[in-house]
Amino acid sequence: MLSYSRDKLIIDDISIKMPNDKIIYYYEIINIKVEDLREDIISICLYTKDNTELRIQYDNGESLEKVEKELNYLIESVLED
Question: pTM higher than 0.85, yes or no?
């Protein structure tokens, strides 16, 4: 599983760009899961058709509201595609 801090990723209208130059397009995502809600680091895990697993980590300095907003955005984007 690839794991990155949220600040290392570029989330735009059609994709998520990772530091290793890998891109995940929203239409490739088949599952979204949230982990570690009660921990210091909350994670949104994305799973793609080609078995890529991406864990986006939000540290305790980021608000739960920001995590919720981005989770909703990702879900809406995947459903649109």
Answer: yes
